[in-house]
Amino acid sequence: MPDSSGQHVHRFDDAATAAHTHDSVPPLTEDDAAAALSEVTRDIADVPAVEVITTTAVHLMSAAAVKCGLADDPRAQTDLDEARKLIDALAGLVTASAGHIGDQHARSLRDGLRSVQLAFREASPFPDEPGKGPGEKYTGSVI
User: How far is CA 77 from CA 69, 71, 86, 120, in A?
Assistant: First the structure.
């Protein structure tokens, strides 16, 4: 609302401010917290293993791609030491789970894995010998 100078000014009195603070929200009881945790646990229990594995692999793959410099700010985000760890973990997961998740899922994950392995080689100032790159102990050489 305008003040005497014609400026638009907002003022809040203490009563209105107090009515909108976190103090007016009732605290979470132990029963409420237990019910929320139980709901989350049930949700996780309902997720098929294939979905958990593929989601985890996609997260590892995305993080590895960023660390290989395939993101908005490669200068600030490239970290090949971190990328190597992520690619090794991804290769182990994809290799170990391929027989359990079905050919369609495994093929897509192997393609993505190979892409980040090649991106790592391209980003590295001193590429590893064939068969010695990240994840290659599980997949074999990508070149």
Answer: 6, 7, 14, 13
